[in-house]
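Possible regression after last week's pipeline update?

I re-ran a chain I had predicted before the update to compare outputs. Posting the input and the new output here so someone can diff against the archived version. Not blocking, just want to make sure nothing changed silently.
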Amino acid sequence: MARRSIVCFFLLATLFIVVQTVFAQSSSYTIATWGLGGGGQSAATDGLAVAGIVGAGNDGRASQNADYTLQSHFWAGVVAPPAGARSLYLPLIVQDPTATPTVTPTPSLTPTATPTSTPGVSPTWQRLDTGNLHTNALAIHNQQLYVGARTEDGPPRRQGGLYRRTLAGCTVGAPLARVEGALAPVSTGLDIAFQGAQGVLAAYGDKVFYTNDGGANWTQVSTDMDRAVTVAGAGGAAFYVGTQKDEDIGADSGVYRSGDGGATWTFVPGGPVNINAINLDTAATNILLWMGTEEEGIYQLNVNLGDRFTAINAGLTSAESKQVWDVAFDNSGKVYIATFDGVYVFNNTSGQWTAFGRQGDKIYSIAIVEDQIYAGSVSNGIWRRPLNSGDWVKTSPPALDGHRVRDLLYDDNECRGLLAATDDGVWLYR
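New output (post-update):
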């Protein structure tokens, strides 16, 4: 019997040395012994193992300063005892559920560049056209880029009107072709919008033109909308045009609506005059349009409530902040505006506009691409910042300083980048 005890002693000592070597410096594990002789505690085993490892209490638990704890009671469900075993005890390693495991964190990778269509390559600005036009507006339809331009006598003289080019392959440095025919006399194309095969061109000084065959042919509208500035589609065949006041002809200025793709128009009374921008709120349950004005701030037009106009100018305290030139929406439905006092965002809870940065800077255009907002200025280039938080960072090259950025449009198909209409042609950021 004594000989068997000596053998068991050496077996237990050997196993303990192995365990201690493997789990040294660890405090997340428990060493337990389970009894094969009926599950009760064994004073002999406690005295042998505990005294040799750590100082433990009568229940076999080790002190808090110990590297290991010993439990000498039977743990059913952890390891089943061999059949027929009577008095042999073996150490068993199990994870202590009360211990906090030590985890080595995985290093995080901080992005060093804005994601682009080419992984690992930082986006840059480059000319999409030949740079010989004063461009105002951008639209994409059937892989065709349409560009509204303004005539300038120069030098050099630059002819306005409506231009287009294919976006297939998104070749940079390719010239734009002027759309002739009925549009030949047009000197200024200020805005353009397509819905399916129907499109409307706001041709400041030359009224409004529409197409119902995808831009192949255009027809001038005779309605008094001589100073048409901005246009927005409202779903189906509905379009809205914003005009500016013309004292010479005495025509109504403000908002006009077409329900037949631009062929006929009706004045919507009760709204502001001198409209700079108009955009449809696609997140609204009603037909809701936001309109930026020359000096009256921002208005809503709720079509479902009987063409009700509402001025929403709380928070726009300066005259510059009430010169609104563009309206944009993020994926959550938040509304952002470009003003001559920077960018503002609307707080639905307070019903007020909050400064969103670039205050003091004259901003003409804004665009939201995923979680980033871009702002084009009158003479200070193009800026970007995250929607959630962060600082504005200038993205445009020095070549665009001093040039007006009148429109921003993201193409997620051919070019996979941000297009900018400037008075130095069309630029691409990708």
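Follow-up from reviewer: compared with the archived run. The CA atoms of residues 270 and 290 lie 15 Å apart. Marking as no regression found.
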